[in-house]
């Protein structure tokens, strides 16, 4: 905990949660996106619809899942559908409002790499790969990206393009026919980047309290442009922080519970 | 359908060089069956699975596989699969060829395989780099009705698909409840289907529309309580998230990995012994 009274993860999560309006349909990834969506659901957006790629539609977990398919999601879901259906009938059909993604690398047009660092055939680091990300990036009406800002992750050139953002900018994404609007916000531990209305290059649009433009620029691997007007984001509200910390405490306790299996024969 | 002890079922259904899919999306991952494949020392397998998970980390690290078809290869919520990474980055214990898809593509590939189609179709927009890697298996075609560009994903037809399920009834019909992933599609795409189950019952407790695999689709079945551990079986036991966190340390290093596998898999007669050794079962 820093002198601010909240951690970088906490302000990122609270800021991401504020981007979610009630009744939106969200395709949720594990980790910070899942924390942000459930925080929103437990505070200002009680009718937020959470879809996890395990096929759980309308999940209302009381504790955060470690995996994308924990039993908690199945038990609290409105419906559980097979994987071909969640991707074809829900995501590809255009029924998802917000897709939430993270990645190992992002470039200035919001394109994402979650596949390899280095050459594909001889990678320095083999990352998990696409999973649901490439289709979420294509089909969600809008995408929110949440990731820590460092020169190693905010790069001038991706090692691999796993998920399309604005491609080469200036309308290239729209020209490709991609149905979704692309990454409307990139939420980092410094603030929020948004695409320029014409070039679609990400620019610094908002900062957290006490953080300067130079620090955000130094954490970016390309010459980061700055919006004409930079908003200062509010610190997390005490109520939201309390809900988030309570959720995380319940989660830690649930994940530490020992498992007992009854061998019937 | 033959009801067999697990070691006989694996010996009968899984041969060296087979394309093998152990499916179950986070839920109902057939760990006991995977361990039996390791104990039997099967080699040159082409492993297929959407999320390789810990069980493929183990099979790859133990030298059972030379090819992997997958769509997301991490330890969910934890980080890397270190044995998968070691095989890809440093060819240990042997090189591992990759065929890589997105989840939507691999789900479609199973569905195509289950339908007797040579490929499945989905809309095509901007190429990602996955379409450009050496040996990439996606192609684009034009819709004959609209002229729209489509991505064609080749069908996946495993030699054998292995599932874990909750129950088998007296006739050999199998019930799957909860998160089903692409288990049904993977089973129907396969030439042989092997199922492990938590328990045998007279009649399945199946609601209408529950996922039931009729006995005549199944080659062999084994009763293996706890057979999905450390993943889970809805209604029986939850996912052991502590084990998934602990695996990160065990698998990070070749020696600790090998020692763990020798003690807990090669050194155990069966899955029940492993569960007792881990203190999970009495």
Keywords:
heterodimer, A: 265 residues, alpha/beta, Glutaconate Coenzyme A-transferase, ten-stranded mixed β-sheet, two-stranded antiparallel ribbon, 8 helices, 14 strands, 28% helix, B: 282 residues, three-stranded antiparallel β-sheet, 9 helices, 15 strands, 24% strand
Brief digest:
The complex is a heterodimer of chains A (265) and B (282). Chain A has 265 residues and is of the alpha/beta class. Chain A contains eight helices and 14 strands.
Tell me the series of helices and strands of chain A, N- to C-terminal.
HEHEEHEHEEEEEHEHEEEHEH
Query: What is the CATH topology of chain B?
Result: Glutaconate Coenzyme A-transferase
Distance between termini of chain A? 50 Å
CATH architecture of chain B: 3-Layer(aba) Sandwich
Q: How would a crystallographer describe the biggest sheet of chain A? A: 10 strands, mixed
User: How many strand segments of chain B?
Assistant: 15
Radius of gyration of chain A: 19 Å
Report the average pLDDT across residues of chain B.
Answer: 96
CATH topology title of chain A: Glutaconate Coenzyme A-transferase
**Helical content class of chain B:** 25-40%
CATH architecture of chain A: 3-Layer(aba) Sandwich
The number of helical elements of chain A comes to 8
Oligomeric composition of the shown chains = heterodimer
Shape, per Cα inertia axes of chain B: globular
Folded structure, characterized:
The complex is a heterodimer of chains A (265) and B (282). With 265 residues, chain A is α/β, with parallel strands linked by helices. Chain A has a single domain (8-255), classed as Glutaconate Coenzyme A-transferase (3-Layer(aba) Sandwich). Helix content of chain A is 28%, strand content 21%. In chain A, helix 1 (8-18) packs across helix 2. Chain B is α/β, with parallel strands linked by helices. Chain B has one domain (2-101, 157-272): 3-Layer(aba) Sandwich (Glutaconate Coenzyme A-transferase). In chain B, helix 3 links the parallel strand 3 (45-48) and strand 4 (65-70). In chain B, helix 2 packs parallel to helix 3. The two termini of chain B are 31 Å apart. The chains are: A alpha/beta (265), B alpha/beta (282). The interface between A and B is large, with 64 and 68 residues.
């Amino acid at each position: 905990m820093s002198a601010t009274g909240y951690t970088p993860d906490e302000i990122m999560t609270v800021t991401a949660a504020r981007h979610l309006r009630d009744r939106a349909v969200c395709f949720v990834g594990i980790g910070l996106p899942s924390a942000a969506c459930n925080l929103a659901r437990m505070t200002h957006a009680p009718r937020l619809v959470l879809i996890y790629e395990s096929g759980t539609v309308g999940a209302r977990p009381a504790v955060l899942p470690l995996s994308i398919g924990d039993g908690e999601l199945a038990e609290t879901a409105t419906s559980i559908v097979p994987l071909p259906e969640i991707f074809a009938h829900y995501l590809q059909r255009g029924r998802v409002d917000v897709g939430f993604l993270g990645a190992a690398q992002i470039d200035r047009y919001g394109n994402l790499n979650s596949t390899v660092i280095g050459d594909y055939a001889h990678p320095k680091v083999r990352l998990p790969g696409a999973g649901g990300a490439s289709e979420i990036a294509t089909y969600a009406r809008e995408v929110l990206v949440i990731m820590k800002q460092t020169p190693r992750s905010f790069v001038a050139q991706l090692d691999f393009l796993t998920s399309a953002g604005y491609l080469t900018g200036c309308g290239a994404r729209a020209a490709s026919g991609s149905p979704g609007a692309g990454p409307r916000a990139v939420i980092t531990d410094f603030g929020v980047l948004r695409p320029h209305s014409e070039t679609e290059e990400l620019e610094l649009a908002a900062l957290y309290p006490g953080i300067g433009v130079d620090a955000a620029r130094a954490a970016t691997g390309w010459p980061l442009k700055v919006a004409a007007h930079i908003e200062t984001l509010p610190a997390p509200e005490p109520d939201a922080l309390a809900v988030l910390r309570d959720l995380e405490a319940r989660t830690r306790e649930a994940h530490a519970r020992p498992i007992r299996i009854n061998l019937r024969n | 359908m033959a009801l067999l002890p697990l070691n006989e079922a694996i010996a009968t259904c899984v041969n060296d060089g087979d394309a093998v899919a152990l499916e179950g999306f986070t839920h109902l991952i057939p760990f006991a069956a995977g361990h039996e494949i390791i104990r039997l020392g099967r080699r040159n397998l082409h492993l297929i699975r959407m999320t390789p998970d810990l069980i493929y980390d183990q099979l790859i690290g133990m030298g059972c596989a030379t090819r992997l078809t997958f769509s997301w290869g991490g330890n969910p919520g934890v980080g890397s699969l270190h044995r998968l990474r070691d095989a890809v980055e440093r060819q240990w214990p042997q090189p591992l060829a990759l065929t890589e898809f997105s989840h939507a593509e691999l789900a479609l590939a199973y569905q195509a395989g289950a339908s007797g189609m040579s490929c499945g179709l989905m809309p095509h927009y901007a190429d990602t780099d996955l379409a450009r890697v050496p040996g990439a298996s996606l192609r684009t075609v034009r819709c004959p009705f609209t002229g729209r560009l489509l991505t064609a994903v080749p069908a996946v037809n495993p030699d054998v698909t292995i599932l874990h399920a909750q129950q088998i009834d007296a006739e050999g019909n199998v019930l799957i409840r909860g998160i089903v992933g692409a288990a049904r599609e993977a089973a129907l795409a396969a030439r042989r289907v092997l199922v492990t189950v938590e328990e045998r019952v007279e009649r399945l407790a199946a609601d209408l529309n529950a996922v039931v695999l009729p006995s005549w689709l199944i080659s062999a079945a084994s009763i293996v309580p706890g057979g999905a551990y450390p993943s889970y079986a809805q209604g029986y036991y939850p996912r052991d998230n502590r084990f998934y966190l602990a695996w990160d340390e065990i698998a990070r290093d070749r020696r600790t990995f090998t020692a763990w596998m020798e003690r807990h898999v090669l050194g155990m007669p069966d899955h029940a012994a492993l569960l007792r050794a881990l203190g999970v079962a009495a």
